[in-house]
Every structure is written in structure tokens, then in C-alpha cells.
Amino acid sequence: MRKVFYILIAIVGTVTRTYAQDTAQIAVTVTGTVLNEQKEPMPGVTITIKDQPGLGISTNEKGQYTIKANKYQWLVFSHVGFAQQEILIKDALKINVTLRSSDKKAMDEIIVTALGRQKKATVTGAITTVDVSTLKTSTSSITNALAGNVSGVLAMQGSGQPGSNSSEFWIRGISTFGAGTSALVLVDGFERSLNEINIEDIETFTVLKDASTTAIYGSRGANGVVLITTKRGKMDKVSINGKYEGSYNTRTFTPKFVDGYTYASLMNEARITRNEEPFYSVEDLALIRNQLDPDLFPDISWMDMFLKPGAFTQRASLNFDGGGALARYFVSGSYINEGGMYETGENLKGYNTNANYKRWNYRANIDMNLTATTLVRVGVSGSLGKQNLPGGTYDEIWASLMGQNPISIPIKYSTGQVASRGGAEKQNPWVLITQQGYIENWQNKIQTNVTVEQNLKFITPGLRFVGRFGYDNNNNNYIRRMKWPEGWIAERQRESNGDLRLKRTITEQLLTQRSDASGDRSETIQGELHYTKTIQSHTFGGILQYTQEKKVNTSNYAEDLMQGIERRNQRVAGRFTYGYRSRYFFDVNFGYNGSENFATGHQFGLFPAVSGAWNVAEEEFIQKNVKWMDMFKIRYSYGKVGNDYMPVRFPYLASFSTNADAGYNWGDLESKNSYPGLTYSRIASNTITWEVSTKHDLGLDFSFFGDKFGGALDYFHEQRDGIYMERQYIPDIVGLRGQDPRANVGSTVSSGFDGQLKFSQQINKLNFTVRGTMTYSRNKILEADEQYSNYPYTTRAGFRVNQNKGLVALGLFESYEDIRNNPTQNFGRVAPGDIKYKDINGDGTINDNDIVAVGATRYPNLVYGFGLSANWKGFDASVLFQGAGKSSFFINGFTVYPFSQGDWGNILADVVEAGRWILGENEDPNAAYPRLSYNGSANNYRASTYWLRESSYIRLKTVDAGYTFPKAITNRIGVKTMRVYFLGTNLLTFSKFKMWDPEMNSTNGQAYPLAKSFTLGLTVNL
User: Fold this and answer.
1) What is the spatial distance between Cα 392 and Cα 124, in angstroms, rounded to a whole number?
2) CA distance 341 to 159
3) Are strands 463-484 and 438-455 parallel, antiparallel or unpaired?
4) Which of 713, 711, 710, 709 shows the shortest CA–CA distance to 700?
5) Residue 277 CA: distances (Å) to CA of 267, 281, 918, 921
6) Is the dihedral of CA 701, 704, 707, 710 positive or negative?
7) Of 802, 809, 893, 860, nearest to 991 (Cα)?
8) What Å distances lie between residue 76 and 56, 57, 89, 94, 980, CA to CA?
């Protein structure tokens, strides 16, 4: 670091001398007025000196400006929505300018790439730029807004619990079954979490999808990269922006269960149909139906009792920016408070047991011009999150809400005792939610970064240096204050005097406390040299980058030395670009990466990529004859990237332990002369390294009719080799005693397409835009370390990652003769009304050798979205539909398999509504549910096509309608702009599957439901 410091001092000294020489030129003061085409003065126009970033001013309310410069420098006039102008300072020192409306086309759009900003027309790789204004969500997670909005991204949300951040997304799908599948997320050039960012702070959002755009990240780029830049200050008067939203959240789906009388009747049916005595008499059923004895025969809808109809969320943000020639600033703060949907009552004093989440975000970005050629950017940001939860854990609560049947126990007995069946897994939901204490999770993130941009034109024109340093610190604290009351269960028979016979099932637990903490800190240092040169019609560019990263866990690893060692990575990366007449482009990218997690000789790897593009629209014959074609660019890329994520630290090191079960026997086989000894707890894997992905991409970018219609389409193909996995089928003769080594032995292939289309039109004062996105990806496992099988369909190879596998159901047995005439099913006794399976291998027996691939994968392979937005005068509205498909899952659990765990488990209303096999009443072999059984039927509970469900859906994702007040009104109250709006999220969902929200992809529905939100908001600009 000391050498780096000396080098920076030398550079700054040289720059200062150069700056002094430059200012020795003839200094002048230029004044003037900037007008629009209607000859009206334009306030807020930015005027800068070319090639001197940050040195400039803005026009005042009368459109006037005064700026100091040197003769024969260029003044650059720019304003949003207007074409930029450059004027050379000569003898005239009063320069008046008229700016004309911009007819900027898609090819002029500037997008953020891995190594800087480029014009869209010059990009040769697969990149999706996201219009941040389309990312609308009423929750704390931006990820919830990605599906259907971003081409190339497949996403799903697994839970609606406030602060859970359970949303997952994958760039172009899942291409590995070994290491991590998550994309690399970089915020202002540094790896950070996507979900802790305030959406109002985002300036640009870019997704890098192919090898040519991610090769510089080398061993970390295989799963794609998300680049986010945050807002920065501009030369202008201070601008203040405020936003407030209030949301009411309900549930998209709530599982529906039968009432107490129906439950008891079904239980009797389940026992009678299996030749057992009914559990409830006619008198008992009457007591339940009429609620004459709520102590012994209650009828409680636990979902309705302990889930509120809805909850409120509040979001507020405030930011201000401004500055002058020497410094600019952007400062923001935001707050979100998401309310939980548990019904906790009003009897709790001094604490809250609901599932609430609060988060405070802050950010300060400051840009300073140290000299005419030196720009320093400083950023400080962070968040403080607090998640409050009931004392019962998430799994316990949802297992109890869906497992506690309506007639098992009341909340409390009439004598005042708390009812409980005993044990956390069968606890009273009221106790779990309100009486078992509460949990607090705190997350504190502090992120800092410094960037130095140095123009090195004194060495050669077109050369500049960018240096970055980032330091992040993350801390998580957990505290659980736990207690519970005594629990009692009543026997079915009362005392002779009518009193309840109560038996204590749980003793009282007084308040105890348990806490824990975890954290990490990371450092990043990066340096880049950029060079551009234009020679007539040829444009050349080059970038060389060095990156050094380290991350260390600071707590929660006790005595584990390996986990306390810093994770270090090094990278040298570069790019060479060539362009000719804005028609032909060629790029070469590479990343040379090193990781200390691998053995010597396997720590470094090269990841190269090449790409090229041809903009047909720039050909002379097209420009002359096809006037409506603005851009038609064909591009192709090929390259290799890696994935170095793995859960094992230093896999090349072996570890040993003393294990009595793995000792040595010094006598005969039947003797007891056994002694403990050292055994492997982990086998060394000296050659372990990263996965390598070879990617191809063929793409098309186009824009027609004055940029009214445009979009991008891509076909991609990827092969992932060297997938990290445990070698599970090494012969026992090797003597590894269950400790199988790990190796890079897996391989997959995936392909698909993604695209986005957009059409904009103006009719009088009505402006509208129609847009759509689609992403489809399909993968296949080529190789996995697995045992040889006579039946290839039982292996993983040849099928998709996360492929569903099960038996093929042929309906239900119609009679005992039907059972005798079909192959034997080795899953317990079967009777008419039980599920009948197909004998796949034809051996006359149904067993695990008949399990085949069925349906699709658990995660969506297709995600799409389409919408319309329009504005007229001050009114605006937008609608987005989002859908997912090519996915399926098995449903299971005690709510799907009635009485599979005796009297534990609610019964879904679908069992009654969809129809089930009933002896003598409905002996339909195609009934939706098989014959009921009590305490389980192993035959019927097998994963099979009988229980396979499609999770495809289409939903009205967002509806946004607002009104911007005219300036005649806002000027009177001292504001620039003001807008009120309504935002609806997840308002309608269309799906064949209706038991719970299909997007959650839950097999049993035991999860916090997703939210349907109704939001009112206000934005104000001062």
C-alpha cells in the first residue's frame, strides 16, 4: 500500500504542474444566454469545458450563464431532452446558444458495461438495460420486481414474510447442480447485496448475460452479472425530492380448509373405509355442528383466527443533490416499515410478536474536482434493518397453523388453562404466535468507496486512469426471548360432575434468552487504464484492469480456523475494442483470475472471450434506400467464464478425527478387541478448481421508424464443465469408509432465448408505449458421478437440473380383480380406490426402478411480461402482466394426504370440492383424491404424476395510475413538480393451481403467503 501511495502522490504532483501550465494560457470569461427553439430562456442547462469533467456551471432562471475558461477550449451545452452542442471559444466572449429538441435514437443510448460506458450501437455482447422507472414494488426487495421486467432474468418469490428476502433470480436459468447459481451483483463496482438498496437511489441497472460481457470477472462470471450505479450530484441548484407511500397488503392466496363437522365426518370415513371403527359418534357430530361443547368439540378455523385480513406498509424517501464546478453531491435517506399479518391481539404489553420489518437506508455520493483533470468520487452508504418475529419459529408456526385440525383443541379451555397437544411441533398456534416470546434480528451494513479518475492526456491524448477502493462491514445480531405457559389437554370423558379431566402436557417455561451474532468485512482495490484513439474512420480502445479482493468472517465461527481465514481473489482483466465507421465492431476480453481456496498449481485460470457485431443500418445502401431503419445490429460472442463458489473451505486439505466406530479390530471377526483410531473426516481433493462455462450468443439489436419500434433478441448456448460435486459411487473396496472425496466431474448443457420488444407512439397529446419481455431456458445434465444403472431413465444424466421424478399413475384401482390383474406394487397393502402405477420396465413389479422423469423442473424455465404505459396531459397510467411456466412440483404433506399422521393435519377444502374415491358413492378411478386412510397409506403417498401440479401462472403484476399537477398550481405552493398515484401489485392471478400461490413453488403450502398490495403515494420535487 505504501508504494501505491507514493505513486498516487507522484501522479497528483505531475497533474498539478500540468494544470498550472494549462492555466497559463489566455484565461477569459464567457457569458451568454441559452434559449430553446421557441426562443424561451432555459434554466438548468449544464455548461462544461470539454475533456475537463466537473468544471462547469448551470444557467440561471433567465437562461444566463457566466463561465471562466481559456481561449480555444470547447464549451459543451447539454440538457435532458435536447441535443448536445459544442462551441469553440475564439474572440467572441458572449456566446448565445439555441438548443434543439433531441431526436436521439437507440443507437446513441449510453449503457453501463463491465469496464465503463459505451454507446449501445458499439456493444457487441448480450446486455439488458433496465428502465428503473419500471421496477415498481411496495416491498423492501427489488428482486420482487425483476420477473417479467428484465429480459434474460428468471425469478420467483418463495415467501411474503416481511424482510425475508426470499426472492431468487437467475440470469438465463440454472446451469449447474454443484456450486452456487446466483448472479454476481456489483453496486458502483463493488460486490454488494441487491435487496438492501433503496430503489430511488438507482441511476442505472444493467444485466450482463454472455461471455464477452462477463469474461473480465473470470471465475465469478459464469452465472451472469448485475451492474447497478447509484445517483450522483449535478451542477445545479439544490434539488430536493421526497416520496411517501402507504400500502395495504392482503394475501394473493390463502389455503382453504374444511370446517370441524366435515373434518370429523372425513375422519370417520377414513377409518370405516379401512375396516376400522369410526372415531366420532352421531352425538359427537351433532355437538360439533351445533358447538354445544366447545371445550371437547371445538370448531376453530386457525387460519382465520390468527391471520389478519391485511397489514400496512409505509415507505418514505428523501434525497437532495446539487453542486458546482468543484464539487457535486447526492444525499439520500429512506425508511420502510412492513407490517406482519399475524393476529397478535392487544393483550401484549411492552413488546410485539408480529412479523414486522423496518429498514433505514442512507447514502452520500460526493464528486470533487481536485484539478482540471483529476476527479475524486466518494461514497458512503448503508442500511440498518430490524426484523421482529414471534417466539415460535417460522416452521413451527406454519406447521401448526396448517396441522392443528379444527376440532383438536380450543385456544383455551373454559377453566382458563391453555390448550396444548404438547411439543413445539404440535403446539397451540396462539401460543407460538403470542405467548412464546419474540425474536429480533438486526442487520447493520456500512459500505464505503473512493474512486479517483485521472486524465493522463499529458502523457498521450485518450489515456486515463481509474482507481477504486472499497471497504464494507456487515454485522448481524440475533436475540430470542423465549417463554411459554403451561399446556393442558382434556380427555374425551368428563368427570361425573361434568368437570373437564385435564392432563398437563407442557410445563411452564419462564423467560429465557439466547443470542448470537455473525458478520463479515470486505476490501476491494482496483486500478484501470483506459485508452481510446480515433484514426479517420477507425476507432480503437483498450482497458487493462487489476483487482484485488478479500473477505473475512468476523464472528460466528467459534474455533473453526479455516472459516476465519480471509477469502482472497486476484484478477487481471482487459478488453480491446475496434470499430469501423460505426458499422463493424470487434472486441476481445479476458480475465486472469486467482483464488487462494485452491491448491498450488490450480489457483489461477484464464477466461477469454471474443465478440463481433455488424450494424447493417449504417451501410450506405441501407441509409439511402431503407430510411425507416435506424439500427439493425447482428452480433455474436464466444468465450469461457467460471464459477468458483463452493461451500468447502480449502478442499485440497485433508482432515482427520478420532472415531470409535472407525477403529481397528485386532482379533477375529467375532472378537471385541476393537480400538479407536484416526480416520478421515474429509478426503483431500488436490485438483479441485472452478467450474468452466463455455458460452455462445447470437443476438440482434434493432430500432425502426425513428426509434418508435425496437428491441433485442438473443439465442444462447452454454456448456458447464467441471461441476463441483461429491463422488458418491466409489467402490467400498477403496476403503474410504463413507468419506467420499469431491471432484470437478459434473457437466451440463443449457440453451434458450430471451428478448424484449418496445413500441412507442404519440397521437396528439397522448403518448403510449407497449413493451414485452420473454426468457426461456432449458438445461440437461450431461455427466454426473453416479452408479451405473440398467435403466438409464433412473440416472441424472440426460435429464434436467432439478428434474421432477416419480411414478406414473394410471388412476385408481377399480376392484380387487383390477389389483390381481396388474403388476404387484411393493409399497404396502392396496385396495380399491388406491393409486395404480405403471410398470415402466415391464418386470411385473412396481418399485423404485419404475421411477421416471415427469413434468418439468421445480423452478420456472419460462418467464415473460407484457404491458402498456400512457400519459395524457398530466395523467399517466401503466399496466404490467407477468407470467411463468415450464415448471411443476409435487404436492404432499399432511394437508394433501388426509389423516396421513392420524388426527394431526388440516384437510384442504379441495379434497371435498374436487372429489375423492368413496366406497359405494363415488368409485371413480379418475377421482382427484384416492380413498381416504387413517395413519397413512405408503402406496398412495409416493411422488407420482397423481400428485404432480403445474406451477405456471399469469398475474396482473402492477397497475400504476397517477396525476402530475400543472405548474400553475405547483408554482403557487413553491414546488417544481408534484405527483399523486395509485400502485396495485399482484392484483389478479390466473392459474390452474389454486391451493396456494403457485409462484411460491411450495410442496405443502406451509409458507407465509405472498402479498397483494394497494398503495397510495406522493412524490414532490422542490
Assistant:
1) 53
2) 13
3) antiparallel
4) 713
5) 10, 10, 17, 19
6) negative
7) 860
8) 9, 11, 11, 15, 36
Helix (H, G, I), strand (E, B) or coil at 142: helix
Stretches where the chain sits below pLDDT 50 are 1-24
Strand ranges in 644-791 using DSSP code E only, listed in sequence order: 655-665, 674-682, 691-704, 709-726, 742-763, 766-783
Phi, psi (rounded to 5 degrees) for 50? -60, 140
* Grid coordinates of 867: 404491458
Decide: 358 and 337 in contact? Cβ < 8 Å: yes
Residue 496 burial by Cβ neighbours in a 10 Å radius (0-12, 13-18, 19+) = exposed
Q: Given the C-alpha cell 462455462, which residue does it identify?
A: 693
Report the chain's terminal Cα–Cα distance, integer Å: 44
- Judged by DSSP in three states, 23 sits in helix
CB contact at 8 A, 412 and 419: yes
CA distance 870 to 770: 9
Q: Which residues pair with 887 in a beta bridge?
A: 857
Look up residue 702 and give its three cell numbers: 434493432
pLDDT of residue 347: 60
Nearest CA among 782, 756, 752, 780 for reference residue 769: 756
Q: Helical H runs in 166-319?
A: 211-214, 260-272, 282-290, 302-306
Q: What is the maximum alpha-carbon separation in the chain?
A: 114
Q: Which residues of 135-171 are buried (b: 16+ CB within 10 A; e: fewer)?
A: bbbbbbbbbbbbbbbbbbbbbbbbbbbbbbbbbbbbb
- B/e letters for 855-870, b = 16+ CB within 10 Å, e = fewer, are bbbbbbbbbbbbbebb
- pLDDT at residue 25, as a whole number: 61
> CA-to-CA distance for 166 and 856, rounded, in angstroms?
22
User: Over 376-444, what HEC string results?
Assistant: EEEEEEEEEEEEEEECCCHHHHHHHHHHCCCCCCCCECCCCCEECCCCHHHCCHHHHHHHCCEEEEEEE
Residues 323-365 pLDDT 10s: 887 899 999 999 999 999 998 876 666 788 899 999 999 999 9
CB contact set of 432 (below 8 Å; sequence gap of 6+): 390, 391, 392, 396, 397, 400, 424
Integer Cα distance of 800 and 784 in angstroms: 12
Positive/negative CA dihedral, 147, 150, 154, 158: negative
Rg (CA), the chain: 33
**Do residues 237 and 301 make contact, with C-beta atoms less than 8 angstroms apart?**
no
Instruction: Give kind and range of the element (H or E) at residue 487.
Output: strand 487-490
Q: Are 857 and 803 in contact (CB under 8 A)?
A: yes
Please say whether the beta carbons of 483 and 514 come within 8 A.
no
Helix (H) or strand (E) holding 970: helix 967-970
Query: pLDDT for 188-237, tens place per residue?
Result: 999 998 888 889 999 999 999 999 999 999 888 999 999 999 999 988 78
What is the distance between the alpha carbons of residues 411 and 407, in angstroms, rounded to a whole number? 11
Q: Give the Cα separation of 188 and 178 in Å (integer).
A: 29
Provide the pLDDT for residue 558. Answer: 58
Under DSSP, the state recorded for 827 is S
Residue 228 three-state SS: strand
What pLDDT, on the 0 to 100 scale, is given for residue 660? 54
Q: Are 466 and 517 in contact (CB under 8 A)?
A: no
List the one residue out of 905, 1009, 936 whose CA is nearest residue 402: 905
Distance (Å, rounded) from C-alpha 737 to C-alpha 489?
48
Q: Which of 172, 213, 225 is CA-nearest to residue 610?
A: 213
Q: Are strands 97-98 and 27-35 parallel, antiparallel or unpaired?
A: parallel
d(CA 41, CA 218) in angstroms, rounded, equals 51
Q: What is the pTM of this model?
A: 0.86
Give the DSSP letter of residue 968.
H
pLDDT in the model for residue 548: 94
Residue 212, SS3 per DSSP? helix
DSSP 8-state code for residue 459: T
